[in-house]
Amino acid sequence: MHAWPASEVPALPGKGRDLRIHDTATGGRITLDPGPVARIYVCGITPYDATHMGHAATYNAFDLVQRVWLDTKRQVHYVQNVTDVDDPLLERAVRDGQDWTELAERETALFREDMTALRMLPPKHYIGAVEAIPGIVPLVERLRDAGAAYELDGDVYFSVETDPHFGGVSNLDAEAMRLLSAERGGDPERPGKKNPLDPMLWMAAREGEPSWDGASLGPGRPGWHIECVAIALDHLGMGFDVQGGGSDLAFPHHEMGASHAQVLTGEYPFAQAYVHAGMVALDGEKMSKSRGNLVFVSKLRHDGVDPAAIRLALLSHHYRSDWEWTDQVLADAVERLGRWRAAVSRPDGLPAEALVEEVREALADDLDAPAALAAVDRWAERQNAEGGTDEGAPGLVSRTVDALLGVAL
After folding, report:
1. Domains in the chain: boundaries
2. Is 45 one of the annotated binding-site residues?
3. Which GO terms describe its cellular component (predicted)?
4. Is 43 annotated as a binding residue?
5. Paired strand residues for 128
6. Is 253 annotated as belonging to a binding site?
7. pTM for the whole thing?
8. What is the largest CA-CA distance in the chain?
9. How far is CA 2 from CA 80, 125, 225, in A?
């Protein structure tokens, strides 16, 4: 599966700062110190409705991570998956009378268009669940053969009790996990499971649903968590720098995935940091496909909204915060974009070297994009009111906003 084209990232004078970021597993801020190549895995979409502002906010957060790392003169090895076969996708296809593969392809293509328009840097590897199945089957077999998985009516489940570190990502108690498991795709009430929290690794073929050759597992399709584990281990290996996604993935998805990988390899941890973006709401409720309260990037684009304004709207909220999308949020972003473009359109301006360092410091401090925006606001306000004589300043500001914030002025 191919990703989307990369926009050029301008080089800035000097060097950026190492990223200090909130780690869900430890509950505190840690300083990431990758090697020459920083490794990041971000969980992708299930393509039955793409791309709403909740998606966009999440991918914007991890785009900032990449940009901070690139500014430190590191390379970035970014991997993202597409869950292109799963219950929600199949259910939507049945509801709409569509072929599930056509639905997945169409929505994935739309997601690529939205990411391109928003200037999100693409992953080096963009992998669909279906194409990963040949690598998933052997992992499930290894877990089963090691006694870390068991069969139940043809399905194969992972035993969470085989990982001594289980629970260390989300740090939730058993009852909270059980409730979230039921809410987020698990089946804690299924009779016969060793532990209600045990997640499915391989679902035996169901009538009327797609299935693949599972070798000794029999025909079927993979569970959700093992999909990302197989892709991450194949392309990044254990101990990569950041596992990222929305806050609703901390449990069960990232918790289960970490346990799968740790039992498979005997190594710990799966990722050095677990980083989670907040949820975006509309009309007082979290945006979700099940509720249908969605604002789509493609709809805004088709209505003539500048993608740079959409990106500024996302950047105006700290990535870890839960916030609400409103018409005013977008109007403020459009107005800000206009002020910034007016400021850099002058042939000369106020010195901007200090601004570059302010933006770098804000983003290195747990991706504090609102603080970065405020720094640019202060320069733009003075520039529009007073002007200056530094001929290189407007261009330096444009390159800084592009390189670090992904906004083209």
Report:
1. 1-409
2. yes
3. cytosol
4. yes
5. 82
6. yes
7. 0.96
8. 76
9. 11, 8, 22
Angle subtended at Cα 326 by Cα 321 and Cα 327, rounded to the nearest 5 degrees: 145
Q: Is 82 annotated as belonging to a binding site? A: yes
Exposure string over 268-305, b if 16+ CB within 10 A, otherwise e:
ebbbbbbbbbbbbbbeeebbbeeeebbbbbeebbeeeb
The answer on whether 247 is annotated among ligand-binding residues is yes
Architecture of domain 1-409: 3-Layer(aba) Sandwich (3.40)
Report whether 329 belongs to an annotated binding site: no
18-22, 88-92, 175-179, 273-277: segment of lowest average pLDDT: 88-92
Q: Would the annotation count 228 as a binding residue?
A: yes
Q: Could you report the per-residue pLDDT of 210-240, keeping only the tens digit for each? A: 999 999 999 999 999 999 999 999 999 999 9
89-107, pLDDT tens digit by residue? 999 999 999 999 999 999 9
Q: Is 21 annotated as a binding residue?
A: no
Residue 60 labelled as part of a binding site: no
167 marked ligand binding residue: no
